[in-house]
Amino acid sequence: MSSKIRLGIIGGGGDSLIGVLHRIASFMNDNYQIVGAVFNPVWEENIGFAKQIGINTSRIYPDFDTFIEKETALPTSERIQVVSVLTPNFLHFPMAKKLIENGFHVICEKPMTTTYEEAEILQKTLAKTNTVFAVTYTYTGYPMVRQMREMIKNNEIGEIQKVDIQYYQGWINPIIHDKKLRNTVWRLDPKKGGISCCVGDIGTHAFNMAEYLTGLEIKSILADLNYLYEDNTLDIDGTILVRFSENVKGVLRTSQIATGEENGLQVKIYGTKGGLKWEQENPNYLQVLSEDKPLQIYKPGHSYNSELSLNGTKLPPGHPEGIFDSMANIYLGVAKAIRNEPYNSGEFPVMNDGVRGMKFIEQCVASHKNGNSWVQL
After folding, report:
1. Residues 299-329: pLDDT tens digits?
2. Is 254 helix (H, G, I), strand (E, B) or coil?
3. List of residues 6+ apart from 137 with CB closer than 8 A
4. Of 49, 96, 54, 99, whose CA–CA distance to 79 is shortest?
5. Cis peptide bond prior to 190, omega within 30° of 0
6. pLDDT (tens digit, 9 = 90+) per residue, 317-361?
7. Rounded to whole angstroms, how far apart are CA atoms 178 and 309?
8. Fewer CB within a 10 Å sphere, N or C end of the chain?
9. Structural contact between residues 71 and 36, judged by C-beta atoms closer than 8 angstroms
């Protein structure tokens, strides 16, 4: 029997970006083997896709309930151990809850649920088990993001004073101005996407990055969201002021109508002794700023980096590492947890990160609706 962790996948079939990202990430460190799945609710597409990518069809199931029923009937030594939930948002909660209740470890796409209430229920369900639960805030896996976290943790830039995170995309711009077209996109459908589009989709990445890197919790927020059209009920752009404490403040800027932008996640964090700057579209370069030294550029794979950063670096210096590597580092951390091996708390986001993400989404919407007022997290 293979020593690899037996992985199941729900969703992510066809031309899904998330699907291929997770599948490749699971293979990259030789820790997982995909043994079962429900890639698509349409059986012909489900089984056809499994054959296309070379997955044994004996454990390709017609639906999620059958997946649970058949897998739990197998001996522990054969059944799937961990399941990646890659479905649209509204299915995350019921699927994750049932998986936890049936003893599966879970790797869940974000946002973890569609409401904070669901997130709390999920957290209480998890507390009754020994299940490993990861939420895939993918960008936490980049080596230079992990380097930032460790430098801040070790007080290399001093006490945090200012956090500025921007996440700009433009993909909704050609869709939002066509009423018929925008009604076909599930992320703009509150029944499938939840109460938020932009903040729920990419704003949560900015929020998570702020807390992951600084080690601080955001205490209150003020949100100004943009919907463009009265009949569009989900935000597609927003600016959120954040307060970690009385003197530690910041701004999260997020948009899916930033025309021409692709995946513009940019992080700037300033402390009393220095600053750090990083861009997702140029991820191998971490800028380190100070008042009394020239600008420094840190790159992955060098001995001057932290153990956490080097642990997430697969290639020698000068070989670019990107989004697949970042997601693979999260899968690597989960594998360590499943096997009860030592791991750094920064190796993968946990359920509490998902819970806070849901609280952030709901309070952003509440802040905007309440006249752009400050609300507590």
Report:
1. 999 999 999 999 999 888 988 889 999 999 9
2. strand
3. 110, 204, 205, 208, 209, 212, 349, 353, 357
4. 99
5. no
6. 988 889 999 999 999 999 999 999 999 999 999 999 999 999 999
7. 44
8. N
9. yes
Nearest-angstrom CA–CA distance, 115 and 146: 29
Tokens of 174: 């050609």
Ordered structural domains, the chain, with CATH: 5-138 (3.40.50.720), 142-315+351-369 (3.30.360.10)
Confidence of residue 2 (pLDDT cuts 50, 70, 90): low
Rounded to 5 degrees, φ, ψ at 192 are -110, -35
- Which residues on neighbouring strands pair with residue 290, listed in sequence order? 274
Which one-letter DSSP state was computed for residue 112?
A: S
- Whether the per-residue pLDDT at 182 is higher than 50: the answer is yes
In Å, the largest CA–CA distance within the chain is: 65
Pick the closest to residue 13 from 49, 53, 47 (CA basis).
Answer: 49
Phi and psi at residue 345, to the nearest 5°: -65, -15
Cα–Cα distance, 176 to 171 (Å, whole number): 9
For residues 78 and 55, the answer to whether their CB atoms sit within 8 Å is no
Token code pair at residue 278: 């990083």
Torsion 307-311-315-320 (CA) sign: negative
pLDDT (tens digit per residue) in 124-152: 999 999 999 999 999 999 999 999 999 99
Neighbour count for residue 115 (Cβ, 10 Å): 15
Nearest to 6 by CA among 88, 65, 75, 93: 75
Rounded Cα distance, 157 and 212, in Å:
16
Q: Which residue has the tokens 């820790």?
A: 31
Paired tokens of 127? 């507390």
Rounded to the nearest integer, the mean pLDDT of the chain is 96
Handedness of CA 173, 177, 178, 184 (dihedral sign): positive
Positive or negative torsion for Cα 194, 198, 202, 208? negative
Task: List Cβ neighbours of 18 (8 Å cut-off, separation of 6 or more).
Answer: 11, 12, 86, 109
Residue 237 gets which letter from DSSP?
E
Secondary structure (DSSP) of 294-351: --EEE-TTSTTS-HHHHHT--S-TTS---HHHHHHHHHHHHHHHHTT----TTSS-BH
Token digits of residue 315: 């290639």
